[in-house]
Design brief:
single chain, about 400 residues, mainly beta, 12-stranded mixed β-sheet, about 10% helix
């Protein structure tokens, strides 16, 4: 009748790709729409979600039908509405330029002109975001020479929080994620790139009792490392710790398993370098193909290569008996308290003194790269064999003389 309604009505909305075709792309019905002086407000898609597929850049038209009446004519062309055509400064804190958005800190600012605390720039191809730009930086400088930091923290209350920190400067960059738990301690992950020292990525857990768990992957020029480590409170002394470390260097590759205190570590090292393959047990620095700090047990034999075709300049041992007579055997205890890194046995020992042996059989004494001197007891065996043979020969001569004397 031409009079605005003041009532509640049923309204059906539909979207079409033309002005007349009854076929629709989307439809929904609102069964209780409040109308005041003919005006109403409806959120389209609140009953039947609007599919993204219909917004393809083509013109769309809105159809409206009230109650059981005919669709209102003409259909309404859907179009965007500009809220603000130009916004160069809002409340003194925001500036915009073509391709640039700047957020300024509250007044007063320490310098004039005041640099932006946050800036986003785009040239249509690349977009750059900078926070805490240095004084004097312009939109052109951003992304080339700046220090940027972005931190987000959600405080969960009760000592619990979640944080994300991103920072960058001309020499390094960091991304860190942390969850702080009042009971279980801190859990964190970090990715770091340093233009001077290389790059690494950390994943870790730090607990309230001072124990930590860390996984790190790092790389540098000519080297790469992967470390899995744990450290636990060790009371008043040094903390106990354990780790697995794999390293690939320009001239060396190694795998290290480590467990124990920093003073007396338990460790196994597998290493390959220009000197060959090396295994260390109880030491992190093997100096021979096999370096063992501590006792060794074997359920089978240990063989040393002695085949003739592998040797030259073969000469019999002379004066073996005289040399053996110059050797002295001793009982002794090892200085375990003075040299804990050597992992000496606490048991009573029996053996030679290297300082004496080297004067008699220098071939049986050796010194490694650490300056440690040792005696090869297996080499002494050859000397003992020849000494026994000399004794046997003397005994046979004496027996012959005794027999001759008895016949007289």
């Amino acid at each position: 009748s031409g009079e605005p309604l003041n009532s509640r009505v049923v309204i059906t909305f539909s979207i079409h790709n033309n002005t007349a075709d009854p076929e629709y792309l989307w439809m929904e019905t609102h069964s209780d729409v409040e109308v005041t002086a003919g005006l109403f407000s409806i959120l389209l898609g609140s009953v039947n979600a609007l599919p993204d597929s219909i917004f393809n850049g083509e013109n769309l038209y809105l159809g409206i039908r009230v109650e059981d009446g005919d669709e209102l004519s003409p259909r309404t062309l859907l179009a965007s509405t500009a809220r603000a055509a130009v916004s160069q400064r809002v409340n003194g804190d925001i500036k915009t330029y073509p391709g640039t958005l700047q957020l300024y800190p509250p007044d007063p600012c320490e310098s004039d002109p005041c640099p932006p605390a946050f800036e986003v720039t785009t040239d249509g191809i690349e977009t750059t975001m900078a926070l805490q730009t240095p004084e004097g930086a312009s939109a052109i400088d951003v992304g080339v020479n700046y220090v940027a930091h972005m931190a987000m923290t959600n405080d969960l209350g009760g000592g619990d929080s979640v944080s994300i920190l991103m920072s960058a400067d001309p020499t390094s960059a960091d991304i860190s994620l942390m969850k702080r738990d009042a009971i279980a301690g801190d859990k964190w992950a970090n990715t770091h790139v340093n233009g001077l020292e290389g790059a690494y990525m950390d994943l870790g857990i730090a607990t309230m009792d001072a124990g930590t768990h860390t996984a790190r992957m790092s790389t540098n020029i000519g080297q790469a490392h992967m470390v899995v480590a744990s450290a636990f409170a060790g009371g008043a002394g040094e903390p106990d710790s354990s780790s697995v470390r794999t390293s690939v260097l320009a001239d060396q590759t190694e795998l290290v398993l480590f467990r124990g205190s920093l003073i007396e570590p338990e460790s196994i090292v597998l290493r390959i370098n220009e000197a060959g393959a090396q295994v260390g047990i109880g030491t992190t620095d093997p100096v021979e193909a096999l370096t063992v700090m501590g006792n060794g047990w074997f359920s089978g034999d240990v063989y040393t290569y002695t085949y003739t075709k592998g040797k030259r300049n073969i000469v019999p041992i002379d004066e073996a008996l005289e040399k053996v007579s110059r050797l002295n055997g001793y009982y002794y205890d090892l200085r375990t308290d003075e040299y804990p890194e050597l992992r000496f046995s606490e048991d009573r020992q029996i053996g030679f003194l290297a300082e004496e042996v080297i004067k008699v059989v220098p071939e049986a004494v050796g010194e490694n790269e650490l300056g440690l001197t040792g005696v090869s007891y297996s080499k002494i065996t050859a000397l003992l064999v020849e000494a026994v043979k000399e004794l046997k020969a003397e005994n046979e001569q004496l027996r012959t003389r005794i027999e001759a004397l008895e016949r007289e």
